[in-house]
Amino acid sequence: MTQKHNYDIVIVGAGVIGFSIAFRLMRSRPDLKIAVLGDPMNSLMASRAAAGMLAPFGECDRADRFFHFCRESLEKYPAFIEELAVISDASVYFSMNGSLMPSSFFKETWEDRKRFFEEENIPYEVWSPGEVREKAPYLSESCGEILWVREGQVNNRELHDALVSAARKLGVAVLEANVTGFNRDESSIGHAVTGSGEIAGKKFVLASGSWSEALGRTLGISMPLKPIKGQMCRLQVEDNRLEYTVHGLLTYIAPWRGGQGFVLGSTMEDRGFDSAVEDQVIQGLIDRAAEILPCLSQAPVIESWTGLRPAAEDLMPIMGKSQRYKNLYYSTGHYRNGILQTPNQADYVAEAILETLKEEIEEFSPARYSL
Ligand code: GLY
Asked: Hey, whose CA ends up nearest to atom 2 of ligand 1?
């Protein structure tokens, strides 16, 4: 069955990336007819599986285009959350309290990090052990000196809920349909094919995270992108134990607060779509995190899960207009930083779709893979 609606824009991917593009488009062009398609189960292993750290300074150590894009996105976050709250009427936990890097884990790179923060004018402080006891009294004394850096934290599940709600309120059609392929000719796409019908559109956006590669194949496109598995868990801990995000060694602690506990992450595993959660791996995460915040060793586990990070071969996002199809756009490959990049990529991709983008970022361009 072919759907009667002919949408202006069909977004394939129902995570924060897809919905934020729909949100941004509707905010600037309320006349557009937009549909978001996607299997909501996929979000459980992507947008809803993340920890919500907004951490360009913990994740990057050189000032390349990727770093600047992530930093711009962090700067956009407060206004983005405010705008979203007004439209969605949903509350999203968001904080700019900052992140901590204990010297016990960052010994080798301590001086380089500080130099990088100085050179890039990144707001940071060095806390002596005495200051750590005052500002984060539940941290282990073995953390030693700590670098505080101005980063953010969001509850990414609340963010996803708010984006879905805002998109619906703005008139976006949210079709919970799994896309299996497309009707197309050599240079353009006509319909997305789903289990419940074919959805016609003028423009299409591929924003399907780790599933983008398989959908690309149905378009005759070879996308060098694969999932990188991360096992994670969430522990019940009182809010007052820590108000900062912590970067450790192969470990991070992300406080969701609001009574929702702390998320601990994460492994980096190249195992395809394997979603297994292994008890001993989760225990390893808890043990490592408890070296930083000892109360975690006794905290009840609320849940544990696996996330799938969509990683392109060069670990850069794939965003912008297709070379191959005149009505196809991409926003995928956000790897470890999809939640962080959400506001900036929404602006960037919406402008690409509306053809108002002033300058394409070469490093992120689909053209680098002839897509
Ligand atoms: N951004 C943290 C992670 O991907 O585990």
From this structure: 336
Q: What's the CA-to-centroid distance between 353 and ligand 1, angstroms?
A: 28
Distance between CA atoms of residues 62 and 361, nearest Å: 17
- What is this structure's pTM? 0.96
Domain 96-151+227-312 -> CATH class: alpha beta
Q: Is the CB of 266 under 6 A from ligand 1?
A: yes
265 lines ligand 1 (CB under 6 A): yes
200 neighbors 37 (Cβ within 8 angstroms): no
Class for the domain spanning 2-50+158-224+314-369: alpha beta
Please tell me the residue having the least CA distance from ligand 1 atom 1. 336
Q: How far apart are CA 254 and CA 52, in angstroms?
A: 7
- What does the pLDDT profile of the chain (371 residues) look like in tens digits? 455 568 999 999 999 999 999 999 999 999 999 999 998 777 778 999 999 999 999 989 899 999 999 999 999 999 999 999 999 999 999 999 999 999 998 888 999 999 999 999 999 999 999 999 999 999 999 999 999 999 999 999 999 999 999 999 999 999 988 999 999 999 999 999 998 899 999 999 999 999 999 999 999 999 999 999 999 999 999 999 999 999 998 899 999 999 999 999 999 999 999 999 999 999 999 999 999 999 999 999 999 999 999 999 999 999 999 999 999 999 999 999 999 999 999 999 999 999 999 999 999 999 999 99
Q: Does residue 309 line the site of ligand 1, with CB under 6 A?
A: yes
Domain ranges of the chain: 2-50+158-224+314-369, 96-151+227-312
Residue 118 CA, ligand 1 centroid: distance in Å? 25
Is the CB–ligand 1 distance for residue 344 below 6 Å?
A: no
Is ligand 1 within 6 A of the CB of residue 230? Answer: yes
Q: Which residues of 140-163 are buried (b: 16+ CB within 10 A; e: fewer)?
A: eeebbbbbbbebbbbbbbbbbbbb
Phi/psi at 134 (nearest 5 deg)? -75, -45
Q: Is the dihedral of CA 351, 355, 356, 359 positive or negative?
A: positive
